[in-house]
Specification:
mainly alpha
């Protein structure tokens, strides 16, 4: 197995960007401001678009350029813009989403990363150099996204967590298998677009019903109904 220094420059760039994607996932988990959370998600989408472009260049698979363009437009620009627009209309753009036990949460995230690297270690020995660390990073993104879903209280930050989790699945697809069939990729992109719109409508319905986007209030309301 080649060390990082022995890898070609392009593969070094891919692995470095993959590490930055993982760092952005930790930043999402640690960030409590709604607007900053959305902005970090946008940067994560931008990093994924750049990685997809580099993998397309490395492998010569032209359909990955389309995937990169879709990722750039949807995850780096459109979805963050839509979330910021909705948050501004709801008056929560400058709000804070309190993190449940932030220190323990970050330690749990670090433990999940170590766990993911150990889980994929047998696979990494047989993987191509371009995907060795990417498999572990993609799995870690999924796990940290799930952790963020559990530890956040506001619906809008939970949506960001869900989208970040989906980024992990997308990263696994492009790095381990060099992308999905184009029809599937277009379908997934369309699903992300529709999901963002539906979530926006969902936010307004929640706000109109309980005058808040705090999930804890929904839980208390459900307990009261029981």
């Amino acid at each position: 197995m080649d060390t990082y220094a022995e890898l070609p420059l392009l593969q070094q760039a891919i692995q470095t960007l993959a590490a930055l994607v993982l760092v952005s996932s930790f930043a999402l988990l640690a960030q409590s401001r709604v607007i900053a959370t959305i902005q970090i998600f946008a940067w994560q989408g931008l990093l994924l678009a750049v990685i997809t472009t580099l993998i397309a260049w490395e492998t010569g698979l032209t359909h990955l350029y389309i995937s990169a363009a879709l990722t750039l437009v949807l995850k780096a620009f459109f979805v963050p813009w839509l979330l910021i627009r909705q948050a501004r209309k709801l008056g929560i753009l400058r709000d804070f989403d309190a993190i449940i036990r932030p220190g323990i949460t970050l330690m749990a995230a670090g433990s999940l990363v170590i766990f993911c690297y150990n889980v994929v270690l047998p696979i990494q020995r047989f993987a191509q150099s371009i995907t060795r660390d990417a498999i572990a990073v993609s799995l870690a993104l999924v796990m940290i996204g799930m952790l963020m879903l559990i530890t956040r209280r506001k619906a809008i930050t939970q949506v960001v967590a869900f989208m970040s989790l989906e980024n992990g699945l997308f990263f696994a697809a492009i790095s381990a298998t060099q992308g999905m069939p184009m029809v599937v990729e277009l379908g997934v992109a369309f699903d992300v677009l529709i999901a963002a719109v539906i979530f926006g409508i969902f936010f307004f319905h929640i706000r109109d019903s309980i005058e808040s986007l705090d999930v804890d209030q929904l839980n208390r309301l459900a307990e009261t109904d029981e």
